[in-house]
């Protein structure tokens, strides 16, 4: 899978994303990140996410750098670039773009686990190929 | 159980409870309500809440009237008055008091269910007696 | 404005809406309610919501009855029926429908205020007419 | 300020912190981080946080590594180690400890800004000294 592949999902900053500083609260950005990953996995790949029958995806690392604050009503593009790090681990590099300007950068890393043992497991080949073929 | 019995739990309005209007977002109050109910059930009654081994508590109704806005850093008292409506249903009347003034009134009604069938079930007598004896 | 007028907004139950009972947390439903009201006000009426230049909308009451639990990935229709109670107060009756079945009923009541005095004020006629003409 | 200085705040994982995987949702950890920072700043230092009269604290970077999942009802210690990176920037290294085991590691970096210009500004000496003297 090429690092250049990007998927873009439009979001709106809602009142509950904001805080008393008049900007989006720093943890709200992970809502935008989650929405984009869920939409990629379910709508583009047809994978039940993050809970599938035989495997779950769990987040093992999250990161965000806030360059410009987002405000109530902002229309933002969440740009997602998935990278298969191993058969068990996928990294999503994420940018938020508002009116052509990058406001936020971050990433989320997830592992696939067996929900019965809670141990990391390799994704089935058909799922992995779907992600690699993006 | 007398309607006069009340339990009081202190909370602080945190930055993530607020929104761009500079006040606590209306849905955040349910966080204060939930905290108070969880503390009553776990700390005062020793009941795993809302997930116990053989029964779960699920919320079937919620209500709040916002008389005065709460702000960042406000120290509030969440006053909880539980009422056993039946062996399956408990109602918690809730007030929020800030510096002697009632700012918020509401209630949460919960039913006990069997998590295997997701049907309402009567609480075990020992649990029910704990609640009634409050 | 006729009580029969309804607006429908599609939502998806996301992982962060759910809790350890495997269902949408009861306070998450107010996120669905808020989204629908914000979309009605901004997209259909062109009103900056809930923060406009000369007036703000603040929530004064919220209510929800949970008939059937919602689960991760559920596609739901949030059905909104606004009612002008006075020049200062609007009530939104709300239902959530999943695959033709009503799962949730509730309402949100909001007042318009002057953000400088934090007192209730009448909405400007042009705004009020927009809402009444829905 | 020595890197060894640590402040510990006790938290409980609440039902609304969890998701349908039965564990704390990854963004909920930032609630634990925020609580600890707010308590340090307000209770230990007497600083209005994150909104003071002449300066605000805004988050410019956040990071978390999830080693072990947290579950409903877990009693956790949030261990906070503040570092003054400059007169404008403070970093909080954070660990979560459950029953002696480190489950989570992360950090939050904040800048002080002038809320009128939204530009980074140096903290007043008395505030800075309070933090350095921790």
From TrEMBL, chains A, B, C, D:
Belongs to the 4-hydroxybenzoyl-CoA thioesterase family. InterPro entries: 4-hydroxybenzoyl-CoA_TE, HotDog_dom_sf. Keywords: Hydrolase. Coiled coil: none annotated. GO terms for molecular function: fatty acyl-CoA hydrolase activity. This is Thioesterase. It comes from the Archaea. SUPFAM superfamilies: Thioesterase/thiol ester dehydrase-isomerase. It comes from Acidianus manzaensis.
């Amino acid at each position: 899978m090429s690092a250049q592949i990007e998927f873009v999902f439009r979001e709106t900053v809602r009142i509950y994303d904001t805080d008393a500083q008049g900007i989006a609260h720093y943890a709200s950005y992970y809502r935008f990140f989650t929405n984009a990953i869920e939409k990629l996995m379910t709508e583009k790949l047809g994978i039940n996410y993050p809970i599938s029958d035989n495997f779950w995806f769990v987040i093992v690392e999250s990161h965000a750098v806030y360059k410009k604050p987002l405000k109530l009503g902002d229309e933002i593009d969440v740009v997602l670039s998935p990278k298969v790090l191993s058969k068990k681990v996928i990294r999503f590099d994420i940018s938020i773009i508002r009116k052509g300007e990058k406001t936020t950068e971050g990433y989320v890393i997830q592992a696939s686990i067996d929900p019965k043992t809670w141990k990391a497991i390799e994704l089935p080949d058909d799922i992995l190929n779907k992600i690699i073929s993006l």
